[in-house]
Amino acid sequence: MIDARGDGGGLPASALRDERDLATLLEEFPEIVLVLSATGAVRWANRLAEEVFGVSLVDAAGASVLDFVHPDDLELVRRSFESVQRKEVGSPIEVRVRVRGRWRLIELIGRPVGRVEEGAILFALRDLTERRRFEVAHDDVARFRALVHNVDAIVVLASREGIVRSVSGSLTRRLGHDPEDLEGVSLGAIVAEEDRGLFDDAVATAARRADRTPVVRSLRLVDRAGAVAGTYELSLVSVDDDPVIEGLVVTAHDVSSRVATEQRLHDALDELHATLSLLHATLESTADGLIVVDRERRVVSHNQTFVTMWRIAPSLLDGPYADLFAAILERVADPDAFRVRAEELYAHPSLESDDLVALRDGRTLRRLSRPQRVDDAIVGRVWSFSDVTAQKTAEEELTHLAFHDPLTGLVNRALLRDRLDEALARSERSGRSVALLYLDVDDFKSVNDALGHAAGDALLRAVADGLVHCVRRSDSAARLGGDEFAVLVDDVEDRREVEALAERIRATLAVPIALNGHVVDATVSIGVAFADHRRTSEQVLHDADLAMYEAKSRGKNRCVVSGADRATGDVERP
């Protein structure tokens, strides 16, 4: 190609005319035309290019057009330079280009022109800025498309089999892949080989689901060079019932930036309220129940998980907020506390909340609430609910195991010590004493050795059951370990009542028990100690333990009061 303003060099006259005619046509072409080297250096530009960019061909010759491209779009342009070399005509792409000091949205399409020089590319450019502004002003779908293209999270539309149909620009920015290279191939191509089995399973699972429940997997993704670029959380949602998409919506984001991504999504809700039908797939990709309420307490948006989680009629979301709130209060275990906290958050829009809500059906929900902001202005409130019932139950079970004996279910030594400390402290205020009964199963080792550990465990459980039936609700029965037990009696008014309790326990447990076809005498030796706030729990345990050993030494199957406490005498009764 020649400069239409040059002399054509040494070409034959006919060729010179053809070249000049072509150059003249390109000079008059109503779109910007550039010829670039494989590295982006300007080789030729038509007159419209000079006018638009305000740079003459002489001044621009040899300069790189990459200097005019927005930094976030550089990778996309570089990939286009490479891929167009393999095609007759490349696919059009949209990038931001600096024109006379301002960013413009430019569509460019290229084709290789190796006859000019090795690797040269002819590009036609069209300024889409005004058209996009018109579309955005009159079409919320265009606004949504622009948001998806520029959002940090990777968004992919794929078939039910995981074949890529289109991807957002963030895929190139984050991983360097050319979108054209991925279209028509499996999304698994950018998944690390070790994780492809998990990806294939996720695609199959998502395709089978008809309720838009997301399938979430943490997978390693690779960059254009095939190197692992990091671990991303992929959420796959089947939207076969949406005739626009009919396939899978896949979102992926770096796990480390989860909080920032969620915040951006929440911030975007107000802008996207007119395109909720398209945003539905994104909202349904989370397992949390989401609802967005504006400053006038009108429901702006919600997902199906919220309706399912609260087990309410979907029609309530379209009616008065008061009816919706009343239905929620009916399901809360403490409606007054729920109402007070909600009103506090609405009254102070900048507040955030993170707490637990107990429901009447036994479930526990974690409630997160944050203000919804647009340009630093609070326009509403975002509520997020997640079911943490299983987690709460597990925590309670762990707490129970930490303070209870796993074999008998009785209080263990640690919890008994805490309760004894509290009882001793209360005794100073009440003026009454505390009693501790220390029990040891007589000849337990003989039973364990003769009949086996299973029989020994059964005997210990029988002893525990006997204790529970003998003591009051306010008393604490505990297993201290092995064949040793204890009973804490608080607020003792008459020591004779404690001595009677000890005798009742001894008599109850003295009844023979059948174990594995054998009849066993489950007698116990009991030591009793009394104390008040002037003694420590260690001292009380020690005194009761000594009294128990004294009962053993006197022939077992009897109760003995600690030597320091025998104001009413020895209560041993064989």
Task: Describe the protein in words.
The chain is an alpha+beta fold. It has four domains: 31-137, 2-Layer Sandwich (Beta-Lactamase), CATH 3.30.450.20; 139-258, Beta-Lactamase; 287-391, PAS domain (Beta-Lactamase, 2-Layer Sandwich); 404-565, Reverse transcriptase/Diguanylate cyclase domain (Alpha-Beta Plaits), CATH 3.30.70. The protein contains 20 helices and 22 strands. A five-stranded antiparallel sheet has the order 2-1-5-4-3, with helices on both faces. Strand 4 (102-112) and strand 5 (121-127) form a beta hairpin. The longest helix is centred in the C-terminal third of the chain and has 18 residues, at 413-430. The radius of gyration is 40 Å and the shape is elongated. The protein starts with 12 loop residues before the first helix and ends in a 13-residue tail after the last strand. The model is unreliable at 1-11, 272-276 and 567-574 (pLDDT under 50).
Strand order of the largest sheet: 2-1-5-4-3
Helix content range of the residues, please? 25-40%
Summarize model confidence as the mean pLDDT. 81
CATH fold annotation of the largest domain: Alpha-Beta Plaits
* Tally of individual helices: 20
Largest sheet: 5 strands, antiparallel
List keywords for this structure.
5-stranded antiparallel beta sheet, Beta-Lactamase, 22 strands, 4 domains, alpha+beta, disordered N terminus
